[in-house]
Amino acid sequence: MIENPERMIPVIAALSGIAGVLATALPYLRRDNFGRRLASVAEERGQLAQRARNEQRGQSETQKLRRNAPKRTYQVIVDALNLSAKLEDAGIAARLQRAGFRGRRAVIQFLALRIIMMVAFAVIALFYSTVVLKLPYPLPVHLLIGVAAAAIGYGGPALYVTNTISKRQSEIRRNWPDSLDLMLICVESGMPIEGAFRKVAEEIGASSPVLAEELSVTTAELTYLQDRRNAYEGLARRTDLESVRGVVTSLIQAEKHGTPLGRALRVLAQESRDQRMAAAEKKAASLPPKLTVPMILFFLPVLFAVIISPAIMEIF
Questions:
Q1: Which one of 57, 78, 152, 258 is most buried, by most CB atoms within 10 A?
Q2: Could you confirm whether the keyword Transmembrane helix appears in this record (predicted)?
Q3: Which sequence spans correspond to the domains of the chain?
């Protein structure tokens, strides 16, 4: 028993006052996590809106350039030479899509540029051979030079498209395993495949704009196409890579049979990574034979000169 209970009254009053002060101040001292999350979401939304405005501005500038482009000239050339049948050629359209040029307008420009460059190269070659250089050759030889230049000009756009396809495929092949890892993370976190494609396109855009563009196109096709299989097959057709076809096949099977996609993506990502490492090892193994000719032409003569020069100086 407490001998003097009156002495405990001030202690209890002090503790009650401290508890009241803490209870009053606690809501102000606690960190507002919900508000912080709302602020971060608002900031991210502002960044996305700014990015969308920038993209819209860039698209408007691109549309302005397209409006100023001489589309009518290309169309007149195609119509005058009766090349309309080639506009329906699926092979030309597919090659241009693999090079990043889409739409009927790209096919018209490609066909018209082949004719323009053929005529321009032939005229320039004949002008140089007859007027500038004044080569002492008969007329058939000059005509043969013009025909050769015309053939080079006609094949120039096709060669450019082939080189563009090769560069795009190399970039996609190099960054495809990383995109599969990101896609695997998105799918295993419960994100739908459209959101996974969109997220991967946003994240991979800094290192591979080409792959980000293809994934963005696939995301748009998944949004408005009735059959999602066409969107997946479009990605495989535009990239024309075996690794992409394997992923497309897995996506189609998952859509059709309801099989889990995460395990297939993990296996395909590992296979793509192994293929990339094998390609790097193959390139490294081919380096010594490629260095043989430069060493013989440039290094060995200098080495022989350094070794033999003192002896020659001693003799003379």
A1: 78
A2: yes
A3: 66-167, 170-285
